[in-house]
Each structure stands twice: as structure tokens, then as C-alpha cells.
Amino acid sequence: MRLLKTTSILCFAAVSLLLVWSCSKSDSTNGQTEASSDQLGKLTIEYPLDGAMFPLEVAPSTFIWKDDSGEADTWLVRVVREGEAPIVEKQVSEQSWKPNTDVWQAIKVAALEKPVSIIVQGGHRVDGEHNHDSWVSSDEISIRTSDDPVGAPIFFREVPLPFDYANKYPEKIRYRLGYVSESHESRVLMDNLPLCGNCHSASDDGRTFGMDVDYANDKGSYVITDLEKHTDLTPDKIITWSDYKREDGTLTFGLLSRVSPDGDHVVSTVKDRSIFVGLPENLAYSQLFFPIQGIIASYRRETGEFKALSGADNPEYVQSNPSWSPDGETLFFARSRAHQLKNADDYTSAIIPKEAAAEFLSGGKKFKYDIYKIPFNNGEGGEAVPLEGASNNGKSNYFPKVTPDGKWVVFTQAESFMLLQPDSRLYIVPAEGGVAREMNANTVEMNSWHSFSPNGRWMVFSSKARGPYTQLWLTHIDEDGNDTPPVLLEHLMTEDRAANIPEFLNVEPDSIEKLVDQFSEGGNYHYRVAKNLLRYGELEDALRLLDKAAEIQPDNPDVFLERGALHSQLNNDDLAMRDFKKAIAIAPTDFRGPFNLGLAKEFIGDLDGALESINKAVELNPMNFNIIAKRGLLQQKIGKVQGAVEDFDKALELNPKSADLFNLRGDIKREAGDFEGAFRDFDKAIALKPDLGSAWLNRSFAYLSQNEWKKARNDLDEARVHTPEAPLRYVIEALVAFNDRDHEKGCSVLEAAKSKGRAMGGYQNQVEHMFQQACISQA
């Protein structure tokens, strides 16, 4: 098998047609002087590949050869079928030739019944004339044609290199749709997108399309839409994998997502962390990417529900690359032992600095995956089992894809890691497991992301056989899993871009003309970017974007609620209340307006006004236990203890399993002198949630009030484990120290509390008073 490694021939010279032959077989073979045997190796046909199979509908391909004889300056290209007259003979003066459409069609038709040979002979001119008496070099290969149609276009990305450049200028990435039958450059469906779009997939019927997008700086964002001739990508079509258990604070980047065959579900990697490093000094391999943590979760379009897939949700492993069986009943995925990134909390971006990946970049550490399969079971999952032939082989196995007939799994294998590995090769194994075979389609360098035509007879994949810019190749696969040397889809791509993530779309010709970006400039986009910035504490930039969003969307209450909350955080109390009142005016039946206005009034000390607003919020949403509980806390602060207890009674009726509600009600009862009721609530809270540090602290404080110092100390010790920086912890610890007559320790604790300033919240004044009484006056 001869595979092209050099890139210098990519810019194909125009071929001069010097001679057209129409002679008999004896004229074209026996009539030519053959090159001597020691010259035969001096010419190599680099493309097509020997044994390659072309689809009947494919556009003309360029024949390329390399002549190292040092003598040839003219070449004769002949295409013949054994025992017959030549189909075509062309004399050319460059080391490449592209047949026209009619000639190419004749070659393909001839190769349907049996292989045709492509013979290239090199000669040299004598006195400016072609000398046909002596050939100095020669090579021969054969090709075939299949009448199995490809039948669908290929959607792919075109990305400038290196990766760091594309990441900085995502608008230069193009999203194309190409048909193998078209000889012109493939259609650009979308470009100038000011955010990065990544892994994409579609349902089997081509109607549902999904793509990872970095919408509003949220790496977990994902657009999912029905495909139309002109498909508008609008904010309402955006979901975010970050919404899966957002409350636990663990970042989600949601990479390598996949739409189900029926379009009803999407699966992705969540709670994930990857080694993701830019390597701009290496144009061909300008990034290192592989996930080291993550579980698999599903999203159900009908309900909007996110759910972890049991069996692929073990945090001790990284579980990624999910891929569906054609019936949607089984998922195949890559799995490895999870790796903890050093100082992981320091990195809030998907891309990490080189030094964070030093153990892999220069330290020689490997990371290898096995392919597993698991029942999807409508999102419930099941037992994950390794796929025999694609696991436990000492290699890294990833990117599993199942053939449309469900019989085979094609996966990528490398020595280590995942994306963009120079040594990566494609293998095929029975879907039930067995012996894996290395595929004939593999080129000399990097064979990766692959996708099957709807009929399952063709597979497109990415390769760097021709240099740093990844190109798309196509191989034929029969029902027994036998594949052929691939053909280059040269007409789909441009020379200055890497073509990657190819996916067949099962759509009718010309049914899709444009993907239209309608979410990157609207007010909602600025609002989403601002919310993401707020998570990282970038308050001023967030405020600037919220101002812009308010200008674009003056009737969006969410914008004013978010900006009001930010103004409140920045101590812009008047501006905060103005925004909350604006939100109420826009959406008078939305409880969030009066609720946030009540919080703002409480912050400035207007407790009666705050209670009035919170009452309105409860009126608008009487079944929301959080609002009712907040009103209870406000009533406690005003001194309406009975009303506070009644509010928490109601909240607990709505949410009887809430440890937090029991804890808060217990504190109110303690303050009211109902210690028996308080201890019951604290005990219940701790039973429901043993790691609830505030419950241990509140019970410790209650024990102090009853002079039960030993029990208070025990609860304080437990609280330190769960919430070491809680303000009440300092107060109790100081009181315990003074009771133990350890005056120095008590004052030291209060000194530490004083240094925290406003972080002590409502205990700040109490700490100051205790310090003055116990430490200053006693000095």
C-alpha cells in the first residue's frame, strides 16, 4: 500500500494535455519500450492508493505520482482493464493528472465489473520532442468502483491552525456540508461565528442536530435543533450541561456529546476535567486533549431532564466518548481510572497551562482508555462491561462508533491519550466483542474521527497523511466488516484549514442551505455571558454586559433581576431596588421581583418594607418553601417569633426531608426559649444530613445556653470538620475558651474573627462587643 506523506503536491499544477492516444491494446502495451527492472522503483504512484474503491458518484480525483529517476520530464498515464483496449491514455508534463468528468465516469464504470489498472511511465524529451522509445520509470496500481451509493452529505468543520489561533479567533472556523459527487468546494453552512462550535451529531433521520457551543462563555452549552433549509440557531435552542447538579459547584464542560438515533435524547460527559493544552509550536499537533475525569449523563428533550447514567457515573473513573447503537438501546464509551489534576481548583477554564500537564507532556506519564458498553435503558443505565477486543490490550482505545447494521464497532487506538495522536489507527471489532482487526483504510499518520453513511457501506474519517492540515478520507465497508484502502475527498476541503469532525447527515440534496447564528449578538447572549462571568467573580465586566443586555431587551425581567442582584452585591442599593421595581413592572405576576426587592430592603435595614415585599412573593408563589422560609427568618429578625415558627412549620409541610429547614426552625425555637423543641429539630437535621456543620454549631450553642459544656465541645469539634470557617464557630470557640479560663486563646479566636470583617455577617457586632468586654477591658 502506497500512502502519500509529502505536502508539496497539494497545490496541483494545471496538467497540459500533450497527447491523446486511441490505439489498440497491442499498441499501448507491447508497442512501448518497458522501463528496465532497476528503474521500476524510481516512480511511485502516490494517489490513488493501490486497491482503493471509489463510489460511483464521486467527483474526479487527481492522480499523483513521484518520479525519483532524475531523468523523466514527461509521463504517460494509461488506464486499462485486463485483456482490453486502454480506457484512456494521456501524455502530461507534470507529476499529476486529473481526468475530466467524462473520462472519470468512463474509468469508474469500467471499474465496476473488475479492477482497472493505472499505469504511469516516465520518459524524457529529445530535442524538445517526446521520446517514446525509452521509458526511464514506471509504476502500476489498481482501483475499483462500487455501485453502493454514499447517499448523504458530510458535515464537518474547517479550522485554522494552530489551535491557539483558532481558539482566539473562532469566527475563522467554517462549518461545511459537502457531497462526494460535487467537484466544487463544499458549501459553507455557517461562518463568522464569534464562539467555538465543536462536536456535532444528528439523529438517524437527519431531522435533529446538536452541537457543542461555547455560548455565553459557558463551556457546557449545547445547541439542539430541528434541521430546516435555513436553520436559525436561537437562544431558546440552547441547553447547558452545567445545569446537571449545578449546585455542587463542580465544573462541567460537556464535551463529546451525541444525539440519540431517534433524536429524543442527548448524552454527554459531565462533571468533567480534561488535559487540554495548546501546543502552538507544533502545527500538525497543536493541542493535547484527553478527559481525565467525568461521568456520562443524558438529557431528555421532551422533559428537559438531566440524569446521570447509572453504570457510567462512577467518579473513580473517567467515562467519555458515548456513542449509540443504531436501535438506541446500548451505549459504547471510553473508560479509564480518573486522574486528579494538581491544583485543579485554580483552573476554571477548559484549557489549562502547560505546567499543569507537565507529567504528561514531559514526564512520560501515559493515559489509556478501554471501550465499554452499557444498556441505555431510557436513561437508567445498567452494568457497564468491557468490549472484548477493544479493552485490556495495553493501548488507548476510544471514539467507538457502531455501524448502522449494528454488527460492528469501529474505534480508534493509540499508544496513549486520545485526540490528535500521530500513531492513532482505526480498528473494527464485532459489536458483541471478539477479535479486533486493523483496518485497511489506515493511512500513514493519524487516523481518527469517523462516521458511517446511512446505508453503512461507507465510512468517512480524518487523517494527516498529507501533512499538518487534517483531511477527509472515505473507505468502503462490506457487510462482513471488510474495508478497502481509502479515497481522498479532495474537492470538499480547502488547503489552509484542517477538516475535522466529519459526520454524515441523512438529508435530501439541497435540503439544508444555511445555519444562521441568531444567538451571539442578542440581549440574551450578553445576559448569559454576564451570568457566566459572575460565577468567576468578574463583576465589572458582568455589569457592563448586563447594561448592554438591558438596552437590547428592555422588556426582559431576567436581565433586570440579575443586574439588580449585582448592584446589591456592589452596594449600589438604590440602583438595585430600581432594577427590581423595573422587573416587577415588566412581570407583575413573577414572584422573583418582589422577593429580590424584599432582600434589597432587608439589606438596607428596611425590615417592615422587606416583609411587605416578601409577603407579596409568597402570595404569588404560595407553594415555594424557600420563600416561606425566608419570610420566617425575616419575622425572626423583626421579633415575630411565633410567625417565624409558623412559617417554618408550613415550609416543612412542603419539604419534610429538609435538614436545613429543621436546623433553622430549631434555632428560632432556641431563641424563643423552647430548648426541648430546639434539640428535637437539631437532632432531626443532623440525622437527615450528618455533614450539616451549621446544625452541629447551632446545637452546640444551645448546649452552651443550658450550661452543658461537654456536649457543646463535642458538637463544636464535629462542626469544625464540616464548616471550619462558619462565623458562629468563632463565637462558640471563644466562649468555650473563656469558660475553660483560657483567656489568651479566647482573645486569639476573637482577633481572628475580627480580621474577617464583613465575612462575619450578623456576628460582626457581637464579636466586637465580646472582644471589647473580654479582651480590652480585662487588659
UniProtKB/TrEMBL annotation:
Keyword line: Repeat, Signal, TPR repeat
Keyword Repeat: yes
PROSITE patterns membership: TPR (PS50005)
Pfam families cross-referenced by the UniProt entry: PD40 (PF07676), TPR_16 (PF13432), TPR_8 (PF13181)
Superkingdom as given in the UniProt entry: Bacteria
Presence of keyword Repeat: yes
Signal peptide region: 1-26
TPR repeat locations: 523-556, 557-590, 591-624, 625-658, 659-692
InterPro entries referenced in this protein's UniProt entry, alphabetically: 6-blade_b-propeller_TolB-like (IPR011042), TPR-like_helical_dom_sf (IPR011990), TPR_rpt (IPR019734), WD40 (IPR011659), Ycf3 (IPR050498)
Protein name (database record): Tetratricopeptide (TPR) repeat protein
Species in which this protein is naturally found: Microbulbifer rhizosphaerae
